[in-house]
Design goal:
The protein has 423 residues and is of the alpha+beta class. It folds into three domains: 11-44 and 226-280 and 381-420, FAD/NAD(P)-binding domain (3-Layer(bba) Sandwich), CATH 3.50.50; 50-89 and 201-206 and 282-372, Polyamine Oxidase, Chain A, domain 2 (Alpha-Beta Complex), CATH 3.90.660; 111-193, no CATH class. It has twelve helices and 19 strands. Strands 8-7-15-16-17-14-18 form a seven-stranded mixed sheet, sandwiched between helices. Strands 2-1-13-19 form a four-stranded parallel sheet, covered by helices on one side. Strand 1, helix 1 and strand 2 (34-38) form a beta-alpha-beta unit. It starts with 10 loop residues before the first strand and ends with a helix.
């Protein structure tokens, strides 16, 4: 319930308390703005949150999100809310992979410096690949509207064993249609910077405790806590300004100095402001969580493993819960939860050496519109933070941040919107 609808001169109204909205609110408070933050759900965090699952009787994340040490904007956000200690770096920095179809496994270990010296050693390369496969990476540097498959030969083993897992994880889009330019941006800020920027950072106690709760606590201290169960119903504009907004059934007239940041999904924004071009294509993500008695370790004691030659794509171990992520999962998401569990469990059982006959306790979570489809065509539809209305700005991982639609993009979009506000 909204506590105070009385507008004050110079107030910043922020609608949406996902990561983008939280980031915007934190940045605005730090700039000295008077902030009111609204959220339609009964919790903050949006698609990035944790909850107590009644089936598994464990706290689980809504989905698996991998943050790397090169994600500069996330690090700044965490520093601002005093939450840098909520993540634990993976040491040593290593990415484990298992090809279930071929029955082989390998590790990718970034070099200490920027040059990937490991590609010069055949024993450290991805199985079935040559030095030329890695030199082809340079083709992405000048990419514009090409897909990854336009630039990397999809018939070579490196395509299915590196580019496909990377595109699905980062873009939530198949490499056959995923934007090569967007993948290059991610690589140039993380893996191509060497080990220092490639270290996976895992939330110690779940995504909510790591990213969401500290932000809410910070905002509460400054009288800017999210006001939940409050949906934006309408936006009225006059000329080049938004004149009023309607939250639930209450209309708020905006003063001349008031400003508005919308941190909403693209489909919700489009319904409110059809004049703004937004991405229309989306891709689903399916997460499957299994709780096991006497849980075994993953290969080489890794906290997570990339899977190739299987429906499952990434497998994370958190205590006695094994969490599986399948991205670009539109077809899989059409199946029932039971059907999905029957498909995924034998693959996981094979990785961890368990009997595939009896499926353990399982929780399936489908996100039908998890992210935008990050194709070259859809990327052209990502709008800028500023709009034709002088007092209206946009935030969201799907806006034109120049980054893949990830947590890093969501955080940056909020910071960017806050920077654009009139002082």
């Amino acid at each position: 319930m909204v506590e105070n609808f009385q507008s004050k001169s110079g107030k910043v109204y922020i609608v949406g308390a996902g990561i983008a909205g939280l980031s915007a609110a934190v940045a605005c408070v730090k700039k000295g703005h008077n902030v009111s933050l609204f959220e339609a759900a009964r919790h903050a965090g949006g698609r990035c949150r944790s909850f107590e699952d009644s089936v598994l009787e464990r706290v689980i994340d809504n989905g698996n999100h991998l943050i790397l040490s090169g994600n500069y904007n996330i690090k700044q956000y965490l520093k601002g809310i005093n939450a840098t200690g909520n993540f634990e770096p993976v040491d040593p920095v290593r990415f484990e992979f298992v090809d279930l179809d071929a029955g082989i496994s390998w590790s990718l270990t970034p070099s200490a410096g920027r040059f990937p010296w490991w590609i010069l050693q055949p024993s450290k390369r991805i199985p079935g690949t040559s030095l030329g496969d890695y030199l082809a990476l340079s083709k992405l540097k000048s990419a514009n509207d090409e897909t990854v498959a336009n630039l990397i030969d999809p018939t070579q083993p490196i395509f299915e064993r590196f580019w496909q897992p990377l595109c699905r994880a980062v873009l939530n889009t198949d490499a056959s249609e995923g934007s090569a330019a967007t993948i290059w941006t991610m690589l140039s800020q993380t893996l191509l910077q060497g080990r220092k920027a490639s270290c996976p950072m895992l939330a110690k106690d779940g995504l909510s405790a790591a990213l969401v709760d500290p932000a809410v606590n910070y905002l509460t201290t400054y009288n800017a806590a999210p006001q939940y169960s409050t949906r934006l119903r309408a936006i009225d504009s006059s000329g080049d300004r938004v004149g009023s907004i309607t939250l639930n059934d209450q209309k708020i007239e905006l003063d001349p100095q008031d400003q508005l940041i919308l941190a909403l999904p693209p489909y919700e924004l489009s319904e409110l402001l059809p004049d703004i071009t937004v991405p229309t294509g989306t891709r689903a993500i399916v997460n499957v969580h299994f709780r096991l008695d006497d849980p075994p370790n993953l290969p080489n004691g890794a906290p997570f493993v990339g899977l190739v030659g299987s429906t499952a794509q990434w497998l994370f171990k958190r205590g006695d819960v094994f969490s599986v992520t399948i991205s670009a999962a539109d077809e899989l998401a059409k199946k029932t939860n039971d059907e999905i569990a029957v498909i995924i469990w034998p693959e996981i059982a094979k990785v961890i050496g368990r009997d595939d006959g009896t499926i353990p306790l399982v929780r399936v979570i489908k996100e039908q519109r998890a992210t935008i489809a990050q194709t070259p065509e859809q990327n052209h539809r990502r709008p800028d933070s500023s709009t034709k209305w002088q007092n209206l700005f946009l935030a969201g991982d799907w806006t034109n941040t120049g980054l893949p639609a990830t947590i890093e993009s969501a955080v940056y979009s909020g910071q960017k919107a806050a920077d654009l506000l009139k002082k």
